Amino acid sequence: MGLRRIAFALLILGIVVWAVFPFAWAIVTSLKAGSALFTVEAWPSQPSLANYAAIFKEQPFGRNILNSLLAASAVVALSLGLAVLAAYALGRVRFSGRGLLLFVVLGVSMFPQVAVLSGLFELVRWLGLYNRIGSLVLSYLIFTLPFTVWVLTTFMRELPKELEEAAMVDGAGPFVIVMRVFLPLMGPALAATGLLAFIAAWNEFLFALTFTLTDDARTVPVAIALMSGASQYELPWGQIMAASVVVTVPLIGLVLLFQRRIVSGLTAGAVKG
Predict the structure, then answer these.
(1) Alpha helices in the chain (DSSP H)
(2) Cα–Cα distance between 64 and 70 in angstroms, integer?
(3) Which of 53, 65, 165, 260 is spaced 20 to 30 A from 114 at the CA atom?
(4) Tens digits of residue pLDDT in 116-144
């Protein structure tokens, strides 16, 4: 038993180091400037916040963060709103082809982004949404909506049938049942799916690169990827790392804040009884 515990502890330690090291190295690099970037040290001998100041002074990085926040928040709101209604239909209403429809919804999310990029670009241009936040919201729903529908449908199936029957006896219709009976019970599932959808939209790169053109319309992943130095042969690694830290810390905070709801939401419906 002692050797097993030691082996398990070493395994956990290795996983933690593997996961945390890139972010820790990004923090260390973001605090360096000049030739210090190419020195290997656990902590900078002369830490500096110049890179953090530069990313906001030399480009509209604050606006890029706001764009990502607006796009991700809108995507989460629309995904959860539509998914709750779809989950009720797929999880509580019996009709022919329900299982097939659910698999089709999940299958849509399996298409690679490149496969739908050209058609989606034509749609965005036809709607007049090019270089606007609306184009990102529309395109992000392609991969966030199927996931939220699938998870919430699984959760909806496990809610007690007696609650629905009692509400029907009182004269409540389907919409009232969803909004006033089921929705208050779906907090963990909504928190889990909403946060995962937010992270996916926040980190999305290909659609944001394709459907935005100007610096003021870009999101943070594209803004970081397009950072340039004093010449075309220079990459501002310090600023890139500083920007990466700035956009990653809020996500870590959200995950730590809602970690219990995430676990309970994703495991809801996994075990019956």
Answers:
(1) 2-30, 50-57, 61-92, 98-108, 113-127, 133-157, 161-169, 174-176, 187-203, 206-211, 220-225, 237-257, 259-267
(2) 10
(3) 65
(4) 888 899 999 999 999 999 999 999 999 89
Q: Enter the tokens of residue 103.
A: 């698999």
Q: Is residue 19 very low, low, confident or very high in pLDDT (cuts 50, 70, 90)?
A: confident
Task: Specify the residue for token string 């990502």.
Answer: 68
Distances (CA, A) of 135 to 5, 14, 26, 48: 51, 41, 31, 38
Q: What is the DSSP string of 25-86?
A: HHHHHHT--GGGGGS--SS-SS---HHHHHHHHSS-HHHHHHHHHHHHHHHHHHHHHHHHHH
Asked whether the CA dihedral 172, 99, 102, 195 is positive or negative, the reply is positive
Residue 162 and residue 96 in contact, taking contact as beta carbons nearer than 8 Å: no
Please, are residues 142 and 52 in contact by the beta-carbon 8 Å criterion? no
pLDDT digits (tens, 9 = 90+) for 28-60: 888 888 777 777 787 888 888 888 998 898 888
pLDDT mean over 4-25: 89
pLDDT value of residue 147? 87
Q: Identify the CA nearest to 80 among candidates 191, 155, 200.
A: 191
DSSP 8-state symbol, 226: T
Tens-place pLDDT, residues 182-203: 888 888 888 888 988 999 999 9
C-alpha torsion angle, residues 185, 191, 193, 197 (rounded to 10) = 150
